[in-house]
Fold this protein.
Amino acid sequence: MKPHTSAPRALHHHIREALRHDILSGELQAGQELRQDALAERFNASRIPVREALRQLEAEGLVVHQPNRRAVVAGMSMTQLCELLDIRIALECHAARLAVPNMVQRDFETMEQILADYAASDSLNEWAEYNRQFHRAICAPANNARLRQLIEEFCLNTDRYTHLAMSEATGLERPMRDHYALLEACRAGDAELVVSLLRDHIDHTRKELQASERQRSLGKPA
């Protein structure tokens, strides 16, 4: 019986990961309908694993089901976004405090390579992906799979809402400066400095987004 139960789990996991990538990369936009029959055809699957994948993405806040039971890519209000950024500060700072004492040379090399790729790219979508990779690289040495999953699923998906606005407001220079400062603090093994820099880095994102929202409400360019 086991082969019959493990295959559907693997399939819905694959569908979930593919759809999550499309949502986080911006290929699927907020409000876009996710039709189960079309997804089943795309993934050469029945509707059962598609339905399960959509249910899990809904739990992550990436998909919502409307009253007519249509699944659509979730949008997010500024209030919801700021709440998630506050949670992200708490979780990422805790992970960083656990992670820094465990870091070794290969961790620093991984972060360096991500930042090099980040700097070489001129794609806003790629910037968002490299930003997620860098934050994951800081948190990974905490060696806490559940904490990493919470950060990835419920916090880093805020990048799809924040990164375009942040990139337009600050360009590449400010986040890269912050990231290199974080890397150097990690190299120095200064966990409290990493936590402080990380908190300020994410909080700056929140303040910039709120400022952009205020400008839009006044009818001025963000």
The radius of gyration is 19 Å. DSSP finds ten helices and two strands in the chain.
